[in-house]
Amino acid sequence: SLTQRLSGTVERLRGRGRLTESNISEAVREVRIALLEADVALPVVQALIQRIKVRALGQEVMRSLSPGQVLVKIVRDELALVMGSQAAELNLNVPAPAVILMAGLQGAGKTTTVAKLAKHLKDKRKKKVMVVSADVYRPAAIEQLQTLAGQVGAVFFPSQASQKPEAIVRAAIDEARKTFADVLIVDTAGRTSIDDAMMAEIKALHAAVNPVETLFVVDSMTGQDAAVTAKHFGEALPLTGVVLTKTDGDARGGAALSVRYITGKPIKFVGVGEKPDGLDVFHPDRAAGRILDMGDVLSLVEQVEAQVDQDKAKKLAEKVAKGKKFDLNDMRDQLEQMQNMGGLSGLMDKLPGVGQLPEHVKQQVTGKEVPRMIAVINSMTKKERRNPDLLNGSRRARVARGSGQTPADVNKVLKQYQQMEKMMGKLGRGGMKGMMRGLSG
Ligand code: GDP
Ligand code: MG
């Protein structure tokens, strides 16, 4: 799958020192194959690859991030961008009733989505929702909607197979107005493929109801065809968004990447199951993260990137590389950076597996410990910080008093310092980079 391929690529880059033209091409080739295998439309693949390449080449790899992480971030950003970068809300900002018109091929999931949307609007946005079926062709289509409406607690406006679709929707709008419904969702008929009569009918319906949202419902399992069908509909109807259904059964995941790029319309929801609660608001950034299967590790990368003071990290790395001694000033810098990142606890919970560690183990390196350690170091003189060997018994006692900690606390800080110092010596040239890589998993 797309996910497996991309994470494999990232895995291979993990050990590399930096992004070079050759390892970028190698990785980009993998990404390309992964996208094509996921049935992403070719123009979309080409555009994505081009952008990823340009960005990766222009990227100065930050000391704190490994090349794999940098590449993941670039790929993730670009995937999100091609899917729209931000969640697109439903617009209900019109005098009630706000009409939502559903369009799409037969079997795409329109009727099911009407019920899901009704539930969503009822539960999440406290709307009074009425639904109506203008599908006078498919046997039992109207009853199907009636049953679903009953399940989700939406008002069902009855219609007959003998009526004209336009007449049905006009009557429904009148009723919605009279009964003060906030939203009216109009279900329509689909055909097995696009034909002129069907397009003419949905256009006429659109003109009759003047919807604030016209949503194109499409089966994600049709892969890049999803985008092509959406494009055709988009040429006939002013679509305001797309609902991608059956993503729960779609292993390839390419449709989401093609739809936005090819149609220019945002994906607003994804269907994630047959039941009325199987609907999710579509978040391009999260979807991109899921495609890469990196989940919270990515937000961790962002955190490290945002919070680590690049200058200090660089200075320390240089210092260690030159064989200079790691002193208590350096330790304090690092502790402050940990604090900036919300303590290690914030970081640890994001690391796969680590979140499950027993509480007392986490406590040791998190919470109040870091500020206390900083307080101890602050109570030392400049000279002591630069040369910790000076800290004999009486000096330690003074530091303890000055920082409001016990002498045992001071000893603990010094012991941790010794461990860090030893580690820094071992890391040598890898210095800060190695350390941050350790931190960011
Ligand atoms: P319509 O012809 O466009 O109205 O399609 P329907 O709403 O009748 O749905 C066709 C089939 O797809 C039904 O069996 C639905 O249960 C199923 N379906 C719709 N959306 C989803 C979804 O998100 N996930 C899954 N697994 N099935 C879905
Ligand atoms: Mg239907």
From TrEMBL:
<feature type="domain" description="SRP54-type proteins GTP-binding">
    <location>
        <begin position="266"/>
        <end position="279"/>
    </location>
</feature>
<dbReference type="GO" id="GO:0006614">
    <property type="term" value="P:SRP-dependent cotranslational protein targeting to membrane"/>
</dbReference>
<feature type="binding site">
    <location>
        <begin position="187"/>
        <end position="191"/>
    </location>
    <ligand>
        <name>GTP</name>
    </ligand>
</feature>
<dbReference type="InterPro" id="IPR004780">
    <property type="entry name" value="SRP"/>
</dbReference>
<keyword id="KW-0378">Hydrolase</keyword>
<dbReference type="InterPro" id="IPR022941">
    <property type="entry name" value="SRP54"/>
</dbReference>
<dbReference type="Pfam" id="PF02978">
    <property type="entry name" value="SRP_SPB"/>
</dbReference>
<dbReference type="GO" id="GO:0005525">
    <property type="term" value="F:GTP binding"/>
</dbReference>
<comment type="subunit">
    <text>Part of the signal recognition particle protein translocation system, which is composed of SRP and FtsY. SRP is a ribonucleoprotein composed of Ffh and a 4.5S RNA molecule.</text>
</comment>
<dbReference type="Pfam" id="PF02881">
    <property type="entry name" value="SRP54_N"/>
</dbReference>
<keyword id="KW-0733">Signal recognition particle</keyword>
<dbReference type="InterPro" id="IPR000897">
    <property type="entry name" value="SRP54_GTPase_dom"/>
</dbReference>
<comment type="function">
    <text>Involved in targeting and insertion of nascent membrane proteins into the cytoplasmic membrane. Binds to the hydrophobic signal sequence of the ribosome-nascent chain (RNC) as it emerges from the ribosomes. The SRP-RNC complex is then targeted to the cytoplasmic membrane where it interacts with the SRP receptor FtsY. Interaction with FtsY leads to the transfer of the RNC complex to the Sec translocase for insertion into the membrane, the hydrolysis of GTP by both Ffh and FtsY, and the dissociation of the SRP-FtsY complex into the individual components.</text>
</comment>
<dbReference type="Pfam" id="PF00448">
    <property type="entry name" value="SRP54"/>
</dbReference>
<feature type="region of interest" description="Disordered">
    <location>
        <begin position="384"/>
        <end position="406"/>
    </location>
</feature>
<keyword id="KW-0687">Ribonucleoprotein</keyword>
<dbReference type="InterPro" id="IPR042101">
    <property type="entry name" value="SRP54_N_sf"/>
</dbReference>
<dbReference type="InterPro" id="IPR004125">
    <property type="entry name" value="Signal_recog_particle_SRP54_M"/>
</dbReference>
<keyword id="KW-0694">RNA-binding</keyword>
<dbReference type="InterPro" id="IPR036891">
    <property type="entry name" value="Signal_recog_part_SRP54_M_sf"/>
</dbReference>
<comment type="similarity">
    <text>Belongs to the GTP-binding SRP family. SRP54 subfamily.</text>
</comment>
<keyword id="KW-0547">Nucleotide-binding</keyword>
<keyword id="KW-0342">GTP-binding</keyword>
<dbReference type="InterPro" id="IPR013822">
    <property type="entry name" value="Signal_recog_particl_SRP54_hlx"/>
</dbReference>
<feature type="binding site">
    <location>
        <begin position="104"/>
        <end position="111"/>
    </location>
    <ligand>
        <name>GTP</name>
    </ligand>
</feature>
<dbReference type="InterPro" id="IPR003593">
    <property type="entry name" value="AAA+_ATPase"/>
</dbReference>
<dbReference type="GO" id="GO:0048500">
    <property type="term" value="C:signal recognition particle"/>
</dbReference>
<dbReference type="GO" id="GO:0008312">
    <property type="term" value="F:7S RNA binding"/>
</dbReference>
<protein>
    <recommendedName>
        <fullName>Signal recognition particle protein</fullName>
        <ecNumber>3.6.5.4</ecNumber>
    </recommendedName>
</protein>
<dbReference type="InterPro" id="IPR027417">
    <property type="entry name" value="P-loop_NTPase"/>
</dbReference>
<dbReference type="GO" id="GO:0003924">
    <property type="term" value="F:GTPase activity"/>
</dbReference>
<feature type="binding site">
    <location>
        <begin position="245"/>
        <end position="248"/>
    </location>
    <ligand>
        <name>GTP</name>
    </ligand>
</feature>
<keyword id="KW-0963">Cytoplasm</keyword>
